[in-house]
């Protein structure tokens, strides 16, 4: 008797990065063109939002079109409160237009990483309400208020885990990790206060990401992504094209990894 070989289970883990996560779309477009279709996903912060849209059936091109036509961080949602600069209800409005509000209605398994502030640990959402999980993982401190789910308090998942491979590593045959926060190896000195803080922040996050990248079968890390802002989409086309070109080059030069 002949047995058909089961299709390989492909996992995809997406880092956070604010609107740099547009780079994920470029990478996913390249994967798509190489016939690589993830069957299980995990993500943190903006990467989790991208993963949720993909799990709901939206293609990379669909997602890019949505980003171009929607306003992110609108001034009308600015608020003078200590809990966060922006009212996150504009995100809920976008989610409700394109996503179901339950993990069970997605087309594939999704794990969303969030930082539980009181215990100081990473927790993973994978069932139940989807919107709350996406708000929790993307609640960047000072930008959005923390998400309360008494007695727990959640903030951006990238603070403790910006490449959440743990929940899916053993559930897939091939794991692809994508990181969109790489920093330039050299920089002009001296730096201003904001750029100094930004560089320190991403050096700290990147150290943990690169330590975990060796557990990925394929790790895609477009260089110097911090040249792009986290909260502005004016360079959306450039980010998409830059990440797409890097991923295409990597996939074409490392085909063995995908077999």
TrEMBL record:
Q: Motif span (GXSXG)? A: 43-47
Offer one Pfam family short name for this entry.
Answer: Patatin
Gene3D superfamilies, per the entry: Cytosolic phospholipase A2 catalytic domain
Q: Which InterPro entries does the record cross-reference, listed alphabetically?
A: Acyl_Trfase/lysoPLipase, NTE, PNPLA_dom
- Keywords from the UniProt entry: Hydrolase, Lipid degradation, Lipid metabolism
Q: Name the residue ranges of motif: DGA/G.
A: 156-158
Cite the active-site annotation: 45 (nucleophile), 156 (proton acceptor)
Molecular function (Gene Ontology), one example: hydrolase activity
What is the protein name for this chain?
A: NTE family protein
| Origin species | Pseudobacter ginsenosidimutans
Question: What phylogenetic lineage does the species belong to?
Answer: Bacteria, Pseudomonadati, Bacteroidota, Chitinophagia, Chitinophagales
């Amino acid at each position: 008797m002949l047995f058909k070989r089961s299709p390989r289970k492909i996992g995809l883990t997406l880092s956070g990065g604010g609107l740099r996560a547009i780079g994920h779309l470029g990478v996913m477009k390249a994967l798509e063109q190489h016939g690589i279709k993830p069957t299980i996903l995990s993500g943190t912060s903006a990467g989790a939002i991208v993963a949720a849209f993909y799990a709901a059936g939206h293609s990379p091109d669909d997602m890019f079109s949505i980003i171009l036509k929607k306003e992110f961080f609108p001034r009308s949602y600015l608020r003078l409160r200590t809990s966060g600069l922006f009212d996150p209800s504009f995100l809920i409005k976008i989610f409700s237009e394109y996503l179901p509000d339950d993990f069970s209605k997605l087309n594939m398994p999704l794990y969303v990483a969030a930082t539980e502030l009181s215990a100081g640990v990473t927790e993973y959402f994978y069932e139940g309400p989807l919107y709350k999980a996406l708000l929790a993982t993307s609640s960047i401190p000072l930008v959005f208020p923390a998400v309360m789910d008494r007695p727990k308090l959640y903030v951006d998942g990238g603070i403790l885990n910006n490449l959440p491979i743990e929940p899916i590593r053993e559930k897939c045959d091939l794991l692809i990790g994508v990181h969109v926060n790489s920093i330039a190896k050299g920089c002009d000195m001296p730096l201003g206060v904001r750029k100094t803080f930004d560089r320190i922040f991403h050096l700290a996050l990147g150290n943990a990401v690169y330590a975990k990248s060796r557990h990925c079968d394929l790790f895609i890390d477009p260089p110097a992504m911090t040249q792009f802002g986290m909260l502005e989409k004016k360079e959306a086309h450039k980010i998409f094209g830059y990440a797409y070109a890097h991923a295409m080059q990597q996939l074409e030069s490392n085909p063995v990894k995908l077999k």
